[in-house]
Automatic annotation (TrEMBL):
<dbReference type="InterPro" id="IPR040079">
    <property type="entry name" value="Glutathione_S-Trfase"/>
</dbReference>
<dbReference type="InterPro" id="IPR004046">
    <property type="entry name" value="GST_C"/>
</dbReference>
<keyword id="KW-0808">Transferase</keyword>
<dbReference type="GO" id="GO:0004364">
    <property type="term" value="F:glutathione transferase activity"/>
</dbReference>
<dbReference type="Pfam" id="PF14497">
    <property type="entry name" value="GST_C_3"/>
</dbReference>
<dbReference type="InterPro" id="IPR036249">
    <property type="entry name" value="Thioredoxin-like_sf"/>
</dbReference>
<dbReference type="Pfam" id="PF02798">
    <property type="entry name" value="GST_N"/>
</dbReference>
<comment type="function">
    <text>Conjugation of reduced glutathione to a wide number of exogenous and endogenous hydrophobic electrophiles.</text>
</comment>
<dbReference type="InterPro" id="IPR050213">
    <property type="entry name" value="GST_superfamily"/>
</dbReference>
<dbReference type="GO" id="GO:0006749">
    <property type="term" value="P:glutathione metabolic process"/>
</dbReference>
<dbReference type="InterPro" id="IPR036282">
    <property type="entry name" value="Glutathione-S-Trfase_C_sf"/>
</dbReference>
<dbReference type="InterPro" id="IPR004045">
    <property type="entry name" value="Glutathione_S-Trfase_N"/>
</dbReference>
<feature type="domain" description="GST N-terminal">
    <location>
        <begin position="1"/>
        <end position="82"/>
    </location>
</feature>
<protein>
    <recommendedName>
        <fullName>glutathione transferase</fullName>
        <ecNumber>2.5.1.18</ecNumber>
    </recommendedName>
</protein>
<comment type="similarity">
    <text>Belongs to the GST superfamily. Mu family.</text>
</comment>
Amino acid sequence: MIVLGYWNLRGYAQPIRLLLEYLQVEYKDKLYHENGEEWFNTDKQELKTNFPNLPYLIDGDVVVTESIVIPIYLAKKFKKYELIGQNNDGSFNQNEIIFLEILSILKDLRDTLNSSARVPSFKQEKDKIFNEKFNVTFEKIKKQLGENKFLLGNLSYIDFYFYEVLKIFKFFYPNLSIFTDYIDRIENIPQIKNYLETKENKIFLLDRMKSLYYY
């Protein structure tokens, strides 16, 4: 069985969980608690890779780390090449470049929100911050989406990543009404809908973030 290791929170592992659920792959969540003792003192030392990090994925003898690399491994393993922008046979497609570009942009967007929300003045200035730091990126993504259902036309991993980014933004900006149809579209994918109803809300509530940020 595949093992996905990460902290006991959503974080960078959540889009990977959505991908695993979409692929209907049996997997185990290995969750590390906040003090990190088990990770730092034991598992990190024993992980069979030169680059131990969280999240990690163990698939038999294969160990994959880094949140950008894990979904690429999974898409190739299960021959779902379209999930990383390639053609159905795994050959090159220009969408493969766009996939990596958008993934990098979304990670920057998420990291910027994460760092901004840890500053005490964020709660009072968050609307200004949104207009100055985030709105231009959302406009670019809106242009990329256009009239399509998904960011590359067909469903790909970046749709799961963008969905999670949007959920985090909705946590900090509850009145934000952007990409609502897109969110509904992701949440109504049968595998994702089942996950949201049976697993996510029992373990990975966004409300657990309240103690870490000025929201």
